[in-house]
């Protein structure tokens, strides 16, 4: 029997809490599919969580707040796999900017390089 894949979330407390309340959370004794990024969260911890989620077989989508994605942009630019798919999402405090989203930049390039 084929089992579905998880959605992983890297985001601020409000974003992750919302997704957990919607039923996205999955936690075992070894790992969880989410990371709450606060002001004191080290950049290395965010990078490690992203790399861990991208190598997990049970993760199909990684949602990351765009302002956090900007902090680890160097890691995101090196990631080129299709699954898990990485989607940048807005947060309550930081609106979405398609010009900063590397997926939207690629789409724009493929469609002729037009702006947003």
Describe the structure.
With 116 residues, the chain is α/β, with parallel strands linked by helices. The chain has 5 helices and 4 strands, in the order E-H-E-H-E-H-H-E-H. The protein has helices spanning 13-21, 43-55, 66-71, 73-78, 102-110, and strands spanning 6-11, 34-36, 59-65, 85-89. The protein has a 4-stranded parallel beta sheet with strand order 2-1-3-4, with helices on both faces. Strand 1 (6-11), helix 1 (13-21) and strand 2 (34-36) form a beta-alpha-beta unit. It is globular and about 45 Å long. The protein starts with 5 loop residues before the first strand and ends in a 6-residue tail after the last helix. The mean pLDDT is 87.
Brief summary of the model shown:
Helix content is 37%, strand content 18%. The protein has five helices and four strands; from the N terminus they run βαβαβααβα. Strand 1, helix 1 and strand 2 form a beta-alpha-beta unit.
């Amino acid at each position: 029997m084929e089992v579905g894949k998880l959605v992983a979330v890297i985001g601020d407390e409000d974003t992750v809490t919302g997704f957990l309340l919607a039923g996205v959370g999955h936690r075992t004794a070894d790992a969880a599919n989410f990371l709450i990024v606060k002001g004191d969260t080290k950049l290395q911890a965010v990078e490690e969580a992203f790399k861990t989620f991208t190598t997990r077989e049970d993760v199909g989508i990684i949602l990351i707040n765009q302002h956090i994605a900007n902090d680890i942009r160097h890691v995101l630019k090196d990631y080129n796999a299709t699954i898990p798919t990485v989607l940048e999402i807005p947060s309550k405090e930081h609106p979405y900017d398609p010009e900063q989203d590397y997926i939207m930049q690629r789409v724009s390039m493929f469609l002729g390089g037009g702006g947003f």
